[in-house]
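Let's do one together. I've listed all components of the complex below, 1423 residues spread over two lines.
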Amino acid sequence: MTRRNLRLADRGRLDRSQPIRFIFNGRTYYGYKGDTLASALIANGVALVGRSFKYHRPRGIMTAGSEEPNGLVQLGQGARTEPNIRATQIELYDGLVAASQNCWPSVGFDLGATNNLLSRFFPAGFYYKTFMWPASFWMKYEYFIRRAAGLGKAPGEPDPDRYDKTYAHCDVLVAGGGPAGIAAALAAARAGARVVLADEQAEFGGQLLHSRSEEIAGRPAVDWVAAAVAELSTMPEVTLLRRTTAFAYQDHNFVELVERVTDHLGPGADGPRQRYWRLRARQVVLAAGAIERPLVFADNDRPGIMLASAGRAYANRYGVAVGDKVLVFTGNDSAYRAALDLAEAGTAIAAIVDLRPDAGGPLVAEARGKGIEVLAAHAVTATRGSARLEGVTVMPLNAAGDGVTGGGRQIACDALLMSGGWNPAIHLFSHNRGKLRFDERVQSFVPGEPVRGCHTAGAMNGAFETADCLAQGFAAGRKAASEAGASGEAGSVPTVTRAEPAESPDRVLWIVPSDKPLGEGGKHFVDHQNDVTAADVALAHREGYRSVEHLKRYTTMGMGTDQGKTSNVNALAIMAALRDRQIPEVGHTTFRPPFAPVTIGAFSGHDKGDLFDPIRKTPMHGWHEKTGAPFEDVGQWKRAWYYPKPGEDMHAAVAREVKAVRAGVGIVDASTLGKIDIKGSDAARLLNMVYTNAWSKLEIGRCRYGLMCGEDGMVFDDGVTTRLGEQHFLMSTTTGNAARVLGWLEEWLQCEWPDWQVHCTSVTEQFATVGLNGPMARKLLAELTDDIPLDDAAFPFMSIREGHVAGIAARVMRISFTGELTFEINVAASYGLALWEALMAAGEKYGITPYGTEAMHVLRAEKGFIIVGQETDGTQTPQDLDMAWIVSKQKPDHLGKRSFLRTDTARPDRKHLVGLLTENPSEVIPEGGQVVAELKNQPPMTMLGHVTSSYYSPNVGRSIAMAVVKNGRNRMGDTVYVPLVDRVIRAKVTEPRFFDLEGARLNG
Amino acid sequence: MAISSRYSIISLARNALNYHRDWQVAWRSPEPKPDYDVIIVGGGGHGLATAYYLAKEHGITNVAVIEKGWLGGGNTGRNTTVVRSNYLWDESAHLYEHSLKLWEGLSQDLNFNTMFSQRGLMSLAHNTHELREINRRVNANRLNGIDSEVLTVEQVKAYCPILNCDPKSRYPVMGASLQRRGGIARHDAVAWGYARAADARGIDIIQNCEVTGFRIENGRVRGVETTRGFIGAKKVGCVVAGHASVVAGMAGFRLPIESHPLQALVSEPIKPVLHTVVMSSAVHVYLSQSDKGEIVMGAGIDAFNSYAQRGSPFVVEHLLNALLELFPTFSRLKLMREWGGIVDTCPDASPIIGRTPVEGIYFNCGWGTGGFKATPGSGWVMAYTIANDRPHRLNEPFALDRFVNGYLIDEHGAAGVAH
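Okay, and this is what the predicted structure of the assembly comes out as:
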């Protein structure tokens, strides 16, 4: 390949003082600061950039912005590689490495291009009609289809870069920093509003950045932009966000933006790579501009064919000619500006092919005056060239514009600039449920009925002249500021002092005819990225996929990374014509966020690794850690699982811990249990409703165990609640359910009983809770307290006493989850570790043994105490759990009571909680084993229930298990089976209690 | 179905020679007849499947499917396309397994490639509780004759090498259940395939026709009022997902259903990296990679009730956090599109399929977040129920009166994951 240089000497907003080196497809090139990768590639004569999705056709750069469907590259290397990046948005930096994607072995010679040769067999939706025989082969077909699809490649390593996210508020958000947006920001900011102005490009100015002749307020347009931005940047209440895309407009003026903070500096730059903005604006001004429409003509996809506005931007902003000999193909005047600017810069214009028979406005005259050949009422009917456009065939159009009259003329050219008109960028407006209206003049959709708090201005309203953009933007900014409460003096509208020539009317031909029937020679691409042609739209119509949604889904039109920015309106218009309807009758598909694809890492920001979800630790966590205890995740909490001594495995450690508790004294960190402080004159009333048992008569200073049921009568939480005062209770909940229980109480209080006088406050983290369990507990505690009498009479089971333990103010409760004599000591969280250490020191002589959650589970199972969420799964009533005793018969009502009367809930043969004792006492049934009464050789087998808890119990001297089993209470003594993958375990049904059946140990 | 309109590699090649000019419409768009034996309200996957099986299994072809918008425009075309049958409770397992068996021959049955890809489906366990529940479910599946297995962390890592199995992560992977017959399918193709096959059996498919009321005489349905006039019917099956309560209201009874937004998202397409379906309830995301190359993701419902087909941005944010927790290599991929559907959820997270208080009106609704996978089975039992005016044994437990008698099939606690 010979090197070409298409750089224009005196054009562009580039810093030419220092060339920047970059590598594309392994080859080194140079560009300048201010280039995009796209402009630098064009300048170096690289037209072939990638391959299309389906047919692997050679493709080049088509646009100069975020709407780019073709020029997607794999950017960067190793852990920092990124697929599908639009070359038009990559700002050039030194050392940039990029490569073509979706091609093998190279973009120049791509084996996948056989798809193009066979494309006749691959029309839209072909895969729905084949690959069905033999039936078992789909997975093999799919393997190859998947490999052919996709675009770029995902990195193989975790992302080394940082991302940030932030919340912000403002009076007025202006999305889009072209003439309308800048004018809006000026008006709003001068009026005193707090303004955020965001634009996706590196510089504010929009189309003014490539305007050459216009003057605003007496100076060249780019100078006016610079002055306006300078004014805005001096205002303290204005935030200017460059390289920032407003990508989603949600309800209530909540706008999501992504700022590319350091992407343009290259890998490893200081600071976060990107920042995700979650912005709530009082008022929003949308000034998103417009996107030029490609023309749909035969083989309109060769490298070198691009939008006319892009050609102009490359020349005037980036100092690059898109070719040596450029043909312009248009149905409107705007493309003439590109031709004139290029001609002025010295680039040869092969011809201007104009669809209009009456092309004749001032711009046309100017072109003719410069000696450019204008072919009115002509069309490009074919194109040639592979890696780059080489020439086109031009034919005269018939009067109706639906055919050509023959007599093709060959014109050599290496670039083609096309313009089919402009589509206002209504995406964000539509996200916010703004209804669109079809505008006959611009032949596209524009914002319809205004949406509250949202103003639109400029080209997105179909106002394409700079003067209109400035006027609409200024008015919108002033109105938004005023509605946001800022009513200062905004000054006057910036005026255009030298305008570009006015444009004469467009001619829109949704399909440019050629001399062959549609689809029978040449491909009229509508969606360049997904390779959807006008013939595919016609096929969809023929087969009945006529709704715009069916069209989209059947052909994949608009489903690529560009989400149809350049293709949607063309496709809708073609379908409308086929259906013989008007475009607005056919409608449009739904515009959904994001406006342009957003890096997933930006949403995550710092919320990853340990910060993915808050880690909750008890005040004694460090002590457990030092002891070498592994931790178990329980909800967000880390709980010590067991405390292994040197050489011990989990089994040995747990066996030691459970024996020590029953023989001497064990200590457990129970701080994670949920604690809810409940106060108010209706506190007891609340408890009476949410628990199944009665609470009114509970004495102050006494504790009671309670079960909570849902409205369906199924148990969903349990715990001990203590009466601290006449109108004051302290509720405890399970660790994992604490937030849900508080939510449950609040839901009832706020929605159903709003007049009840009761307040619930989570105090889980305000207290550290330490359980002392075992026959030595009283003796040990007595050494550390002198103001709490510990004998049974003075401090009976299920009561609370306040005093001091180890000199720390404490609430001590006599409750038990092990069946042993237990004191549960609650102190302020900050004293938790001190209390723990004092107890450990004083307990040494009693052989005090810390135990973790695993030993706790074994100890409670020995006693047959349930764990909600383990013995229950939302389908157990208290009666099922053999806890009918806790359901009050006297109370007029409580949550779930009604459901106990339902026929199925009242059935006597539901699943009951039972015990299981294996025939082989040393065999432990795996938890989750299913219980059957009758073994069969193979499935299906009728299941009775499942094993909920199962342990080896050293205290009982054998394995023990709890299970829920259909009609279990009437199966006592029966043998059941637990079939596993590799064996079957036989067990006998028993009561679900295995140790200290009389409860003698509770009092020490 | 006429031979000429059958889809095959041969017909594709023959049509290619003719520039695809001769393909026929996949389904007709007839004017509604004055009356039908059966009207199906709702042209989503479940409704179209019901119509198809009415014709195929019961010989009832004087049937119309009426749809207020375009076919498959509700949750059929908005879901994450997960198909599995590894449900815990017997009732669910039998129904979904029946559905899975129909999936396995669906493309051939419909002569339309639904791209049902049995690439396996893995549910991760991140704590001891989830491990216990996974064992419980796998044991139950196996005893119900459904393929299911438990994977150790090492096996998980081998099965899905790009999954983060670092023991130091916030919620480390401790194991997983795997259903190898589970997978994904092409959602739109399911609606279109059923529509085309139903049409071929003479069923009228009528789009852009909204039901505005029922004509009910002496407790028996006589037909439906629509935006295109009254259409008579001996029986009416309503399969309208998120709008079930609204349509039931027109028939004069209430349903225990709440409608919530459920969002899903896709990344830009990339070359194949993820070859199975991964679900995690503790980290709260599920995902797969489409044949086109996009990573397709979903999570939980938005908590509030809504009929708007969009949800809250913070739900998306949490979902993407969860995605990167499990797949840190996806950080530099880009979110391409997000959308929302409206799911009809029952208090027990199981569907309602059967008769209603009005004679001749049948409802099929309440599929919540997991209806797509059930499409063939749901249509099959619904067709049986309408044809015989009584439920099949597979859907008998899913009757509306379970909310009176308490025979709930509570998949909330049991299934753990939403999909």
